[in-house]
Design brief:
The protein is built from 14 helices and nine strands. It is an alpha/beta fold. The two termini are 39 Å apart. Bound molecules: nicotinamide-adenine-dinucleotide (NAD) and zinc ion (ZN).
């Protein structure tokens, strides 16, 4: 069976296109569902972007905190805030949820829009195709590029048991607003690490066993754009990085990520290391799996003058190493994509543990 996957309904791309958001959202507002929920990265509170939010009377602004990557408990709490605020407006549901920020904020917006129409806790839906009811309309405005969260069918959440996405067709955004001006102010190191998330998506997709011409077409273009951005500092880098993120996300939609992401999830779950930086830390130890990719990644580190953190597992306990291995091993499709069906023979607990101990 070939995957028949859902993708984003509408895209708008261009410098300054954020100003079209009001018109775009107006089409979603009705008399019974009039409020738009803006889930905005708290980093923009008091910044010029706050003044540019196209707020109307009924709207609700949630300044979200992304110091930690999204947790299921936080999603549940935010969803309750929205439910209460909408009830005060004597409505049942908002007209839509818009996420404005990096991958964490976009994932929060996706998760809130899903949990408004699905009962229980978001932790009950971590996995594949567990969502029962369509989400409310949801849109994304990235302010950092690389994760591909703007195009993916998952919202990555850390729950009580595991770090695993809510993967479903209903997770996919209805609208994405790609305005390269919005990523210009991102801190240099953060921009690099999130950009490397995209670069690693491409390498893992292109070197994986799930690759087909569809994934390859998107992956190769995204990889070239990353090279232009991080090796050549090419003109129009923000525009290019935004498109790399989108294409990288499309590439893994029909393939998968691999060894680096599986290991990075373990680091993130146990030590709270964020995704982009975690991937970068891990990737530097994966020469045996991705020799060319790792060599090029090191050239990018040097060109962009980035020093990777070292020794992050130096004080981890045996129990923590065991948990990291457990979390990494849950991710079957990633290992299978990277190493083939017989991956369990290649990637033993011992070998994964040894890799973690080196980091
Ligand atoms: P992020 O959203 O976690 O943000 C990182 C930091 O950058 C935060 O401090 C944020 O406030 C700040 N920031 C964002 N935009 C800024 C701007 N324009 N100016 C100044 N500061 C800005 O970072 P990210 O790397 O984009 O996202 C990582 C998250 O995405 C993780 O939670 C990861 O699990 C998730 N992710 C999701 C998918 C998916 O398909 N859904 C894919 C990969 C990663
Ligand atoms: Zn990633």
């Amino acid at each position: 069976m070939f995957r028949n996957f859902k993708t984003v309904n509408r895209f708008v791309f261009g410098r300054g296109c954020f100003d079209q958001l009001d018109d775009i959202l107006a089409a979603q507002r009705t008399s019974t569902r009039s409020a738009i929920v803006f889930a905005v990265d708290g980093v923009f509170q008091g910044k010029p972007l706050q003044e540019r939010l196209p707020l109307r009377n009924q709207d609700i602004v949630l300044w979200v905190n992304v110091d930690d990557e999204p947790k299921t408990a936080y999603v549940d709490w935010l969803t309750d805030q929205v439910r209460n605020a909408v009830a005060e407006r004597r409505q049942e549901l908002p007209a839509g949820v818009v996420g404005i920020g990096g991958g964490s904020t976009m994932d929060l917006a996706k998760a809130i829009s899903l949990m408004l129409t699905n009962p229980g806790s978001s932790s009950e839906y971590q996995g594949w195709d567990l969502i029962k009811h369509p989400a409310v309309y949801h849109a994304a405005v990235p302010t950092l590029s690389g994760t591909g969260a703007e195009v993916s069918r998952t919202t990555v959440l850390t729950g009580p048991e595991k770090k695993l996405g809510i993967n479903s067709d209903h997770t996919v955004f209805d609208q994405v607003v790609l305005d390269p001006e919005l990523i210009a102010g991102a801190p240099r190191e953060q921009r690099f690490y999130t950009g490397m998330d995209c670069y690693i998506h491409c390498v893992e997709s292109l070197k994986g066993t799930y690759l087909n011409a569809f994934s390859q077409a998107y992956g190769e273009k995204a990889l070239t754009l990353c090279q232009e951005v991080f090796l050549q500092d090419a003109p129009g880098s923000d525009d290019k990085l935004m498109m790399a993120s989108f294409f990288g996300g499309m590439s893994i939609a029909y393939s998968q990520v691999g060894v680096c992401h599986a290991l990075s999830y373990g680091l993130s779950f146990v030590l709270g290391v964020h995704h982009g930086i975690g991937n970068s830390i891990v990737f530097d130890y994966l020469e045996e799996f991705y020799p060319e990719g790792v060599a090029e990644f090191r050239r990018m580190l040097s060109k962009q003058d980035i020093q990777l953190p070292r020794g992050i597992t130096a004080t981890a306990t045996d129990a923590q190493f065991e948990k990291m291995v457990d979390v990494a091993l849950i991710l079957d499709p990633l290992w299978e994509n990277a190493l083939g069906r017989e991956w369990r023979k290649i990637m033993t607990r011992q070998r994964i543990g040894d890799l973690y101990r080196r980091m």
